[in-house]
Every structure is written in structure tokens, then in C-alpha cells.
């Protein structure tokens, strides 16, 4: 049997961290993931997927991710249920992340960023970008300049 989920998307709001009575960190966030196809109006829709992260990864996610951050999540799908305050059974489906990757630098002024035990620096990022941006006429390229995006421009 296989239960594996791999997602890449942007956080819809800042992550929320809490601690269990035993002191274990738990962070939750929602990831907006674009669908690979357009609807009948030609617009691409997004799915909003709840994610939960535990222990040290939870603390890292809470400290380094924020609304709009691009993140990769590798984990498993889980369903659970509980009795709500009104006495009705509530069902929850979420991704339990085994690994969360921060896919963009926190700040363009930083030389490097530690993510999930891996060190990414500007040199490796530029080499990565060269693999995919072989054309100079890329209309989405920022030509080495920061991209100016306001919260109003985000789809969530």
C-alpha cells in the first residue's frame, strides 16, 4: 500500500504553532496548490490543502514560513474525526508532512538559507535557475531584481 503526497504551493496565511501537553510542537497551515488545467472560462483554479507538521520541522515552519511563502510538502494523507462543541462528529482530512522545504529565500539580502537540513545559497539557486531559464526572452524573469508583489496580487 502507498500513501504519499507531494505538494508545491503557497501558504494562504501565516502558519499556526501550538504545543501538546507533552511539549511537542505542532504547526498547521493551508497550502494553495494550482491545478494543472484550466476551467471552462480558461482560469486555473486552486485547491486549498490543510497541512500539519510535528516536532522540529513544526518549529522551523512556524519561524520561517509566512503568508505567500512558496513551500514544498512531502507527507501522507490522514483522515481523523472528533466530536465538535455542538456534539456533532467532525471529519478532517489533512496532509501530515514528513518534510517541508522552503522553496524561496527568506530575504534577498541573505547570503544563504538553511532549509530542512540543506544549505541553499545564491550560487546554487542561480545554477538551478539556469537549468530552467535557458531562453533570455522569459517574460516571467525578474532579471536578478526582487519581484514586487503586494498581498492584493496573490490569489488567496
UniProtKB/TrEMBL annotation:
Q: Where is the composition biased (Polar residues)?
A: 106-132
A single BP term in Gene Ontology: DNA replication
Q: Which UniProt keywords apply?
A: DNA damage, DNA recombination, DNA repair, DNA replication, DNA-binding
Region described as Disordered: spans on this chain: 103-156
Which Gene3D superfamilies does the entry link to?
Answer: Nucleic acid-binding proteins
* One Gene Ontology term, aspect cellular component: nucleoid
* Pfam families documented for this protein: SSB
Span(s) of short sequence motif Important for interaction with partner proteins: 151-156
Q: How does it assemble?
A: Homotetramer.
Database matches in PANTHER family: SINGLE-STRANDED DNA-BINDING PROTEIN (PTHR10302)
Give the protein's function. Plays an important role in DNA replication, recombination and repair. Binds to ssDNA and to an array of partner proteins to recruit them to their sites of action during DNA metabolism.
**What is the protein name given in its UniProt record?**
Single-stranded DNA-binding protein
User: To which species is this protein native?
Assistant: Bacillus cereus
Amino acid at each position: 500500500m502507498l500513501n504519499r503526497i507531494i505538494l508545491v504551493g503557497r501558504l494562504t496565511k501565516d502558519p499556526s504553532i501550538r504545543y501538546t501537553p507533552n511539549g511537542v510542537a505542532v504547526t498547521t497551515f493551508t497550502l494553495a496548490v494550482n491545478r494543472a488545467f484550466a476551467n471552462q472560462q480558461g482560469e486555473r483554479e486552486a485547491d486549498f490543502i490543510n497541512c500539519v507538521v510535528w516536532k522540529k520541522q513544526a518549529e522551523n515552519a512556524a519561524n520561517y514560513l509566512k503568508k505567500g511563502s512558496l513551500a514544498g510538502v512531502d507527507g501522507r494523507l490522514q483522515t481523523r474525526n472528533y466530536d465538535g462543541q455542538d456534539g456533532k462528529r467532525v471529519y478532517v482530512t489533512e496532509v501530515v508532512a514528513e518534510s517541508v522545504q522552503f522553496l524561496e529565500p527568506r530575504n534577498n539580502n541573505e547570503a544563504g538559507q538553511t532549509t530542512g537540513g540543506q544549505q541553499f545559497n545564491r550560487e546554487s539557486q542561480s545554477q538551478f535557475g539556469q537549468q530552467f531559464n535557458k531562453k533570455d526572452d522569459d517574460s516571467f524573469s525578474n532579471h536578478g531584481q526582487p519581484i514586487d508583489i503586494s498581498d492584493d496580487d496573490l490569489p488567496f
